[in-house]
Every structure is written in structure tokens, then in C-alpha cells.
Amino acid sequence: MKSLVAAALPGAEVKRNLAKAERIPPGGLVVIRDGDPGEPEVSLSPLTYLYSHRIPLEIAAYERATLSREQVVDAMLGAIGAAVMANRTLGGLCDWIEAEAPVTDDIEALGALPGRFADLAILAVYATTDPLN
Question: How do the pLDDT tens digits run along the chain, 133 residues long?
């Protein structure tokens, strides 16, 4: 997932499970959380575990010279959406991925530029014979 997002947003920093962002880089920040795969459906012949794994993404950005902060976040979301549509199987790692609708809001901190963030999730559906692998 990290490589998909990093390719879609070459100017942004993409981190996995970042505890707390201390700053937002000029190109924006995307934090990918591991999420919870939940309880799988199990098929016994052959033994197969089917997961619907929700992978949370957090996006944050400031305005740029010619774009408002809303436009920057919208562009980042659009790029992620296009990357998901272009590679629905993550190169064969999943049976299907799709993006859920984002929730957006402003970021305000005393003495800092106003920013914008979006929370969304990518739903990855996959089957495996080994839930630890």
C-alpha cells in the first residue's frame, strides 16, 4: 500500500504507523495505518481465510502558492483514487481494493499555517491459506 500511495504522491512524505506528526512537510504528509483485518470468513475445502481489511490513511497538507489547502488535499485524494483504480489488485496481492469516502477538516495550531486533513480508508479484500503470512 505504501508504494502505491508514494507513487501517486511523489512530493508527499508517506509514513507507516507514525505515532504523531510533529510537522507537515511542504509536499504534504500521508500516514498509512496497519488497520484491523477483522474476523475472516473461512472456507474449509481447501482451507482459506477471506479478509476484508480496512486500511486507514491520514492526509495532511498546507496551501501552496497557487492552490488553497482544500485544493491541495482534493488533488492528493484524487491522485490516490486514480492509483487505486489503476491497480485494483495491488499487483496481485489482493483480490480487490477500493477507497472509502474521506472525512475532511481544518488543522489549526497556534503560530502555524492553517492546514487541512482528510481521513479515509482503503478496503482490501484478499484470501490466504495462512493468516500470519
Answer: 889 999 999 999 999 999 887 788 989 999 999 999 999 999 998 999 999 999 999 999 998 888 899 999 999 999 999 999 999 999 999 999 999 999 999 887 777 778 899 999 999 999 999 988 7
- C-alpha grid cell, residue 68: 488553497
How many CA atoms are closer than 13 Å to the CA of 25, on its beta-carbon side?
12
Strand pairing class (115-128; 47-62): antiparallel
HEC readout, 108-132: CCCCCCCEEEEEEEEEEEEEECCCC
Region of 108 (left: φ > 0; alpha: ψ -120 to 50; beta: rest) is beta
